[in-house]
């Protein structure tokens, strides 16, 4: 008996996300008809004849958890051969081929709930990754084997930002945008700007981003600073990533007296304002803002 199956490793930050110890993994518990003791496994299952493995894992994850999964390009293949084992009420020579994908679900997903009735799983839940790795959660061997091979996706992003000031010395204001709650550093105030499209000129990309986030036309001066950040967190898509951001910061000016407003709908910016430099310490700001003002003062 040979069986090909597809599964997904789906990770997220827990409610009190302060580091890797607070990561959670989505697992399915095997039905009581299959095991006398609780056993958890990765969501997924066997491929139907002619079924694409990616389509199979999306279908299986939904049946077992009720969640819509997106799978990445990376997959790991595990092969297990048991010449003398018990399957479906008989003794067989079994060969299992398991394809495990990197997967993620939307940030606003509901709590997992098994959809399939009478299937091989009884429930689904987010469980502490540290407890799974330490063996405090009983799992099938596949779970730990897959976790040993799994690597968090690495993403590097180049972005341009503008430090835009107005007003006389001693009473200057800086143009800031607030990061939307669904994005990394949600609620913090940031410089207007954002990621560059492929092959996009950094200045042209920055003019575009400032217009989308503030409704204002910016004129750019000299490059001011190169700043970078490195963090592990959940992207707006729901994917857990090791993120490296490279930030090109320019000095900018705007000639219009028009009040700024967010133009882009459903983006990563939910507010924009002129903020007095004297009251900047009262707001949560990103390290990009701090680095830009330090470079400007130098």
Attribute tags:
single chain; 298 residues; alpha+beta; 7-stranded mixed sheet; 5 helices; 14 strands; 17% helix
| Secondary structure tally: strands | 14
How far the N terminus sits from the C terminus, by CA atoms, comes to 71 Å
Structural class from helices and strands?
Answer: alpha+beta
Uncertain residue segments: none
**Share of helix, binned:** 10-25%
Overview of the molecule:
By secondary structure, the protein is α+β, with helices and mostly antiparallel strands. It contains five helices and 14 strands. A hairpin with a 5-residue loop joins strand 12 (219-234) and strand 13. It is elongated, with a radius of gyration of 25 Å. The termini are far apart.
Q: Secondary structure elements and their pairing?
A:
Blueprint: E1 2-13, E2 23-30, E3 40-41, E4 44-46, H1 53-65, E5 70-87, E6 90-104, E7 121-128, H2 129-133, H3 141-149, E8 153-166, E9 173-179, E10 189-190, E11 193-195, H4 202-214, E12 219-234, E13 240-253, E14 269-276, H5 287-297
Parallel strand pairs: 1-6, 8-13
Antiparallel strand pairs: 1-2, 1-4, 2-3, 2-7, 5-6, 8-9, 8-11, 9-10, 9-14, 12-13
Short description:
Helices cover 17% and strands 44% of the residues. The chain is built from five helices and 14 strands.
């Amino acid at each position: 008996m040979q069986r090909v199956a597809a599964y997904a490793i789906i990770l997220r930050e827990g409610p009190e996300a302060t580091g890797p110890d607070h990561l959670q993994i989505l697992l399915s518990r095997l039905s009581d008809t299959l095991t006398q003791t609780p056993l958890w496994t990765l969501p997924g299952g066997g491929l139907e004849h002619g079924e694409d493995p990616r389509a199979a894992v999306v279908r299986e994850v939904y049946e077992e958890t009720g969640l819509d999964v997106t799978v990445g390009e990376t997959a790991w293949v595990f092969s297990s051969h048991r010449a003398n084992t018990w399957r479906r009420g008989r003794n067989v020579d079994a060969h299992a081929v398991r394809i495990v994908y990197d997967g993620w679900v939307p940030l606003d997903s509901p709590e997992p709930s098994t959809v399939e009735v009478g299937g091989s799983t009884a429930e689904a839940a987010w469980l502490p990754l540290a407890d799974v790795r330490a063996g405090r959660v009983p799992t099938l061997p596949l779970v730990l084997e897959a976790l040993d091979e799994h690597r968090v996706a690495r993403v590097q992003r180049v972005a341009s930002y503008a430090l835009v000031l107005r007003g006389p010395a001693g009473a200057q204001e800086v143009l800031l945008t607030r990061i939307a709650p669904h994005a990394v550093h949600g609620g913090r105030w940031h410089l207007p700007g954002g990621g560059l499209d492929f092959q996009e000129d950094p200045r042209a990309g920055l003019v575009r981003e400032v217009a989308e986030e503030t409704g204002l036309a910016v004129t750019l001066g000299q490059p001011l600073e190169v700043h970078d950040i490195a963090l592990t967190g959940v992207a707006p898509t729901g994917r857990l990533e090791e993120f490296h951001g490279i930030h090109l910061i320019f000095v900018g000016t705007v000639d219009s007296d028009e009040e700024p407003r967010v133009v882009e709908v459903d983006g990563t910016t939910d507010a924009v304002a002129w903020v007095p430099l004297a009251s900047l310490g009262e707001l949560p700001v990103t390290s990009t803002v701090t680095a830009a003002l330090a470079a400007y003062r130098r």
